Amino acid sequence: MLRSVLRASTTRLGVTGSRFCSSAADKLVITEVDDKTGYATVTLNRPPVNSLNLELLTAISETLDDLQNNKSRGMILTSSSKSVFSAGLDIMEMYKPKVDRMKEFWSTLQDVWFKLYGSPFPTVAAINGHSPAGGCLLSLCCEYRVMCQNYTIGLNETRLGIVAPTWFMASMRNAMSRRDAEMALTLGTLFTTDEALKVGLVDEVATSKEDAIAKATAFLDKFKKISPQARSMTKQALRSKDIMELEDNRTQDIDLFVYAVTQPKVQKGLEMYLEALKAKSAK
Ligand SMILES: CCCCC/C=C/C(=O)SCCNC(=O)CCNC(=O)[C@H](O)C(C)(C)COP(=O)(O)OP(=O)(O)OC[C@H]1O[C@@H](n2cnc3c(N)ncnc32)[C@H](O)[C@@H]1OP(=O)(O)O
User: Fold this and answer.
1) Which residues cross the membrane (predicted)?
2) Which of 30, 67, 142, 244 is the most exposed place for a label (fewest CB within 10 A)?
């Protein structure tokens, strides 16, 4: 039984007892809390591909605040798209950018990473579609990943001629062996679901979104008999080195992002990548 849509984007909505409040489907992030389990399903909802622009990142950040303030028992992150979990960062935020917005964009991505990677409540990604780059990062911030068959996932930044920030790399290293992470990051590998399972980038394979949600729920259920405080302190202790590293370097990290992305060579690369994407989608 779904109790409520906690928050959809920035608007707090009322309790309905049914699946969605009237306008929730139009929002960037839809949160539904299960009455029985207390688990929140957070659905990314920015068609066509959930590319992460400033507005979507802000909505995710606010959602994570809500869940923390409401002492959530657990979160399942998924997508409303039939074939894409998230296409990663919105390339339009990086192509011919306005520097002020770009800084806010990056700072908001950092916020999302801090809140998700360091969340006190347990988190699972139900990856029901392709999940390149920033999409993969969101799933890596979660503690467990269940992925539907026949999609791709990975940190493919080098394929775009860009370098994934160290905290992206740390998130991947937290899930996979150092050796596999190094190979994946330097090659910019986009793994198929089965390949991702083999290297430990995902934990389970699902046959459908429903199956992914069921498996994600089963993972969250494992913590029923574990003290939430002991659980979250253990998680945060294990992740604290990565978190402190970015906390200590937030401003430099933003400056580096702005510097790297505004390089003419990178701008040219992004332009060509965008053209290739558009040509593909026009076919
Ligand atoms: C120091 C700098 C560090 C920066 C770190 C960067 C991290 C990132 O996340 S960069 C983004 C990397 N993302 C990708 O490489 C994914 C690109 N997209 C795809 O490969 C595919 O779109 C897909 C597999 C995710 C989905 O394929 P499909 O369902 O076939 O959809 P289309 O390719 O037809 O795309 C529909 C529509 O969306 C536009 N689009 C796709 N991805 C992005 C994106 N990341 N940003 C902005 N726009 C994107 C695509 O161009 C199509 O647009 P229209 O032609 O206008 O319909």
Assistant:
1) none
2) 244
- Tens digits of per-residue pLDDT, 39-86? 999 999 999 999 999 999 999 999 999 999 999 999 999 999 999 999
Q: Is 2 in the pocket of ligand 1 (CB under 6 A)?
A: no
Q: Point out the catalytic residue in the list 134, 135, 154, 188.
A: 134
- Sign of the dihedral through C-alpha 261, 263, 269, 271: positive
Q: Which residues in 45-56 are b (16+ Cβ under 10 Å) and which e?
A: bbeebbbbbbeb
Residue 110 identity: Q
Complex ipTM: 0.99
50 catalytic per annotation: no
Per DSSP, 39 falls in state P
- Active-site residue flag, 53: no
- CB distance 153 to ligand 1 below 6 Å: no
CA distances from 141 to 77, 96, 113, 120, 122 (A): 11, 29, 7, 12, 11
Task: Please indicate whether residue 247 is annotated as part of the active site.
Answer: no
Q: Is the pLDDT of residue 10 over 60?
A: no
Of the candidates 50, 53, 128, 156, the residue annotated as catalytic is 156
- Which is the catalytic residue, given 6, 89, 185, 246? 89
**Does the structure show a pLDDT above 70 at 170?**
yes
Backbone angles phi, psi at 163, to 5 degrees: -105, 125
Q: Provide the CATH topology of domain 29-282.
A: 2-enoyl-CoA Hydratase; Chain A, domain 1 (3.90.226)
85-120 pLDDT, tens digit per residue, is 999 999 999 999 999 999 999 999 999 999 999 999
Q: Is 57 near ligand 1, meaning CB less than 6 Å away?
A: no
What pLDDT, on a 0 to 100 scale, did the predictor assign at position 26? 81
CB-ligand 1 contact for 137 (6 Å cutoff): no
